[in-house]
Write a structure and sequence with these properties.
Elements (H helix, E strand, L loop, with lengths): L7 H6 L2 H11 L9 E5 L5 H9 L4 E6 L2 H10 L8 E5 L11 E7 L8 H11 E12 L5 H10 L21 H11 L1 E15 L1 H12 L1 H4 L7 H15 L8 E14 L1
Parallel strand pairs: 1-2, 1-4, 2-3, 4-5
Antiparallel strand pairs: 5-7, 6-7
Helix pairs in contact: 8-10
Amino acid sequence: MKRYQWNAQDYEKHSLAQQKWARELLDKLSLHGTEDVLDIGCGDGKVTAEISRLVSKGTIVGIDNSSSMIALASKRYPPKDYPNLSFQQMDAGNLLFHECFDLIFSNAALHWVKNQQSVIEGFFKGLRQKGKILLQLGGKGNAAEIISVLSGMQTDPEWQSYFEKFDFPYFFPGTDEYESILLKTGFKINRLELIPKDMAHAGKTGLEGWIRTTWLPYTQQVPAEKRDKFVDAVSTKYIERTPVDSKGRLHVQMLRLEVEAEKK
């Protein structure tokens, strides 16, 4: 999995939607409080810390492949305040666990990994018998409008030269594709569905914060001194297609794949 230069503090300010979706996902769980949990793509650790309170008699490990995210999470949620919580820098596609967890949780992270088969096999190995996975990732058709704008930038004369060798970095699967991966690995599928989500941003500034902190495969193709101009161009084109609503908000239609499965 390719590593990008995340600005952890900036991401923390512009990831409220992801945090909201994570909480909605957690509401679908019935935890006993004794589980050992792995959080994949923990980011700034905010959701991981919330889970730690739900498993007060268990443990939780948050992993992320970004050193800046792990550094921020470790600083925000230290062992003296969260004794059952720890963070490690690790790639989701190269997990080093064997039958350690009762639950593997991931929100808004796995679509960054193209080789999902290796990820799911790592989950299977890391779970105890009857352990569960609860995942949400970008699904087929996710963020189609903003991706269309970003794709258009690749042929814009001003930006074209920076995208000559660009390879679309995300994996946005449909239910059939993911079902095949899960069954091949040996999971029993309890739920697998594509769910529409509305992501609302506070005007142009909010949209640009999200573009700047989330769409790194595009923004980091552009020289640092030109990135603000690039982000402004993307947001301007998006607003031409999708104007602000009556409350000054900009909406992005997302499609999330939610997965609940169990190790047989």
